[in-house]
């Protein structure tokens, strides 16, 4: 029983046949362009609008451009692995479902628990960035929000007047999380049409910033391109580029959501890799261009703020453009928070249906048809975290948690190639097992760029998750009880 409950696997056939009950009803209507647009919509958001300035100011300087290159390469390897698994197991649930079908229940629990760092903590990180842009926009229209109530405790900064301010709580960040939580509880859904509109808005904002900002760049701000290391690992120099890559890796999070479209792709073996790798390539090029313009507009030492793009726009000094960019950024970040909160509740919903979490998380409102109790609990917790946790800590936790999940996904491809060698694969990762191994190595390299305290937090988080599994999930697993 112990052996079964720890390593029991859901068969791929059972997942496809039963899964979420929709595998046979969805229309194969998505082509490579639609999937690429979906990927761009999922990727562009929090990282580029929030963490670019922090990583440049604290770790990499103008060399943050190289950090984005490293992050994009790592994601390309992982993206190929997602494409194979998405075509092989065309069911929603993403990496949690893949792991349950390959590495077994214990690893599925670990990755499901780890995904909280990507979705819930990711939503908190984006909310902090949203707060920064809203406060900046209010200032532009003559309304000054009390700065101590727009920053986490422990945050110390100086106002233009020279007065030193200590953060109390980030109330705007908590507000947007709770507002979107209420909307999701009442059944708010994103349609494909809305997603396409948001993609256009995000791309317009990013391209406008690059296009207009390029005329105001001062090349003097790019020197030194890679500042000398301060003597501490990760603070400028080559190690700073690596740590910057680990931090801005957050900017690429979201491409894994593309994998859930596999069962609706007209030609998965072609469309999935084109959509995943195409969106990654486009976004990486845009990120490098934004980083170049931003560090050329504002000295990198002044970019340690939650709204770096807003600071860059202010440096341009064109009033209407400032308002347009900030409104676009706020709209884009709002959508990202909504998607992450939605995704977290659905992951908990799936885990609860498998018996690994209490039934509360899969309880559906009889009229609204939403997992209202789970959504409310998630919203309250994320709001508290957003209000009282600095963005630097949040960003690093999200990055290390997601990198860890990606390692398991790459490992799942290698494992399935041996355990299910004869299974039909609509798309195969080229050069396996070397490409999945390169994905694992790339993710480990980026994880090594993060400080020891972040590793310690990850270890503590996983220990809490394992305790919950062994005291609850293992005994209530429906797969184990069925066996």
Features:
Amino acid/polyamine transporter I, mainly alpha
Number of separate structural domains: 1
- Name of the top-level CATH class: Mainly Alpha
Q: What is the percent of helical residues? A: 55-70%
At the fold tier of CATH, the topology name is Amino acid/polyamine transporter I
Please identify the structural class as seen in this structure: mainly alpha
Order of helices and strands: HHHHHHHEEHHHHHHHHHHH
Low-confidence segments = 19-26, 188-192
Distance between the termini: 9 Å
Topology:
Layout: H1 2-7, H2 12-17, H3 32-43, H4 46-60, H5 64-88, H6 94-102, H7 105-140, E1 156-158, E2 164-166, H8 171-185, H9 192-213, H10 237-248, H11 268-297, H12 308-316, H13 319-353, H14 372-388, H15 391-419, H16 434-448, H17 452-476, H18 478-482
Antiparallel strand pairs: 1-2
What does the model show?
The protein has a single domain (34-482), classed as Amino acid/polyamine transporter I (Up-down Bundle). 67% of the residues lie in helices and 1% in strands. The chain has 18 helices and two strands. Helix 5 packs antiparallel against helix 11, helix 7 (105-140) runs antiparallel to helix 15 and helix 15 (391-419) packs across helix 17. It has helices spanning 2-7, 12-17, 32-43, 46-60, 64-88, 94-102, 105-140, 171-185, 192-213, 237-248, 268-297, 308-316, 319-353, 372-388, 391-419, 434-448, 452-476, 478-482, and strands at residues 156-158, 164-166. By secondary structure, it is mainly alpha-helical. A hairpin with a 5-residue loop joins strand 1 (156-158) and strand 2. The longest helix is centred in the N-terminal third of the chain and has 36 residues, at 105-140. The chain has a two-stranded antiparallel sheet with strand order 1-2.
């Amino acid at each position: 029983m112990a052996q079964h409950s720890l390593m029991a696997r859901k068969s791929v056939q059972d997942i496809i046949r039963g899964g979420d009950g929709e595998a046979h009803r969805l229309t194969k209507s998505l082509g490579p362009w639609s999937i690429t647009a979906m990927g761009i919509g999922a990727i562009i958001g929090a990282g580029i609008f929030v963490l670019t300035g922090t990583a440049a100011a604290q770790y990499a300087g103008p060399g943050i451009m190289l950090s984005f290159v490293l992050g994009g390469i790592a994601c390309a390897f992982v993206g190929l692995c997602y494409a194979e698994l998405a075509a092989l197991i065309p069911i929603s649930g993403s990496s949690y479902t893949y792991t349950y079908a390959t590495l077994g229940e214990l690893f599925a629990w670990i990755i499901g628990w780890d995904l909280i760092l990507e979705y819930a903590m990711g939503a908190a990180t984006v909310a902090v960035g949203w707060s920064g842009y809203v406060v900046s926009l209010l200032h532009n229209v003559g309304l000054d929000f009390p700065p101590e109530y727009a920053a986490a405790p422990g945050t110390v900064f100086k106002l233009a007047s020279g007065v030193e301010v200590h953060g109390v709580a980030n109330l705007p960040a908590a507000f947007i999380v709770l507002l979107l939580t209420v909307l999701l509880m009442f059944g708010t859904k994103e349609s494909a049409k809305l997603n396409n509109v948001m993609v256009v808005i995000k791309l317009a904002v990013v391209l406008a910033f690059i296009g207009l900002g390029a005329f105001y760049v001062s090349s003097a701000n790019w020197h030194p391109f890679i500042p000398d290391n301060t003597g501490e690992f990760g603070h400028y120099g080559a190690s700073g580029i690596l740590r910057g890559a680990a931090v801005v890796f957050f900017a690429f999070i979201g491409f894994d959501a593309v994998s859930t479209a596999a069962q609706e792709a007209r030609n998965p073996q072609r469309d999935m890799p084109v959509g995943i790798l195409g969106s990654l390539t486009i976004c990486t090029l845009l990120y490098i261009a934004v980083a170049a313009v931003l560090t050329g507009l504002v000295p990198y030492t002044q970019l340690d703020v939650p709204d770096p793009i807003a600071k860059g726009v202010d440096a341009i000094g064109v009033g209407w453009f400032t308002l347009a960019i900030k409104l676009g950024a706020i709209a884009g970040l709002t959508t990202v928070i909504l998607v992450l909160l939605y995704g977290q509740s659905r992951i908990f919903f799936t885990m609860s249906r498998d018996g690994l979490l209490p039934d509360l998380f899969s309880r559906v409102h009889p009229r609204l048809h939403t997992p209202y109790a789970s959504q409310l609990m998630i919203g309250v917790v994320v709001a508290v975290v957003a209000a009282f946790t600095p963005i630097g800590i949040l960003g690093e936790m999200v990055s290390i948690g997601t990198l860890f999940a990606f390692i398991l996904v790459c490992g799942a491809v290698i494992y399935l190639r041996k355990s299910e060698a004869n299974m039909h694969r609509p798309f195969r990762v080229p050069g396996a097992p070397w490409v999945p191994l390169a994905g694992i190595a790339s993710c480990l390299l980026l994880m090594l760029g993060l400080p020891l305290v972040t590793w310690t937090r990850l270890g503590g988080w996983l220990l809490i998750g394992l305790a919950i599994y062994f005291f609850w999930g293992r005994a209530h697993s429906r797969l184990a009880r069925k066996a």
